[in-house]
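Handoff note, outgoing to incoming analyst
You'll be picking up this chain. Sequence as last confirmed:
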Amino acid sequence: MTTPEAFREALLDAGLLVDGGIAGVYHRSFGYESIVRGVQAYVSAPARDESFLQLALPPVQALSTLEISGYVSSFPNLMGLISSFAGTEKEVSALVDETEGGGDWRVRMTPTDVALCSAACHGLYPLLVGTTVPSEGRRYEVHAWCFRHEPSPDPARMQSFRMHEFVYVGTPSGAEAHRQAWIARATELLEGLGLSLDVVPANDPFFGRTGRLLASNQRTKELKYELVAPISSESPGAISSGNYHEDHFGSAFGLRADGEVAHSACFAFGLDRISLALLYRHGLDLEAWPADVLRRLPAILDAGVRATT
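Most recent structure output, in case you need it:
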């Protein structure tokens, strides 16, 4: 059985990933990126004839988004905040001296009002603050680089990764229907790439004692399902998830639908984890992948596959 550490070394030796110097941080080869681009186009294609507003969201977001969404209290251990130097010209000299002398220059940095993106859909809700959505709801397709502070030698635990999501904001019945439809659609799509999947009830990794209660409630009410598959070892991990938020974001951001607080749901494709699962399943020689998989992901061969050097 391949361990995550052994799979990581194989990816590095093949040149698909390059060690970024910090656990869970990697540089990606063009060949690896061709897999990610192929998967993104593949999962996006079924929605082309549907009324999704498409947005590519940046890897940073307003700090207030973390606060309003409840992320600060639920996942403080995963957050990434951005600090910058806000001192005077005179204080720059002191900072330089401390840096060159091996001192802790970080104490001179000041928190900004910007944070790293935690989940692709989170940057969407502030755009809708105080709005009333139509009775049929609104649907969005969003893509973003995300960050979670989970340093690990397991390549499936990247600190910086991509998520592609399909989000619904509207009525409770619409939100549940959206999630269930995308669970079924995603299962068919990913099994079409040769992945062996299970759909299992799950919970988010809430922090602390209160978090354990939230996680238990999430499982009891079946608010979250994960599509799991082997990613970096035979032990399966989540590569996609379907989430029903109830009125959490509707209440937080003042969203209404059909005269009530809006409910929301999202289905998230973890593009990096899916790409790793494909490499684990089909091997590191991309040109030797099954012809049917390459036909579904033409971006791989279009890129020339110069990763394995």
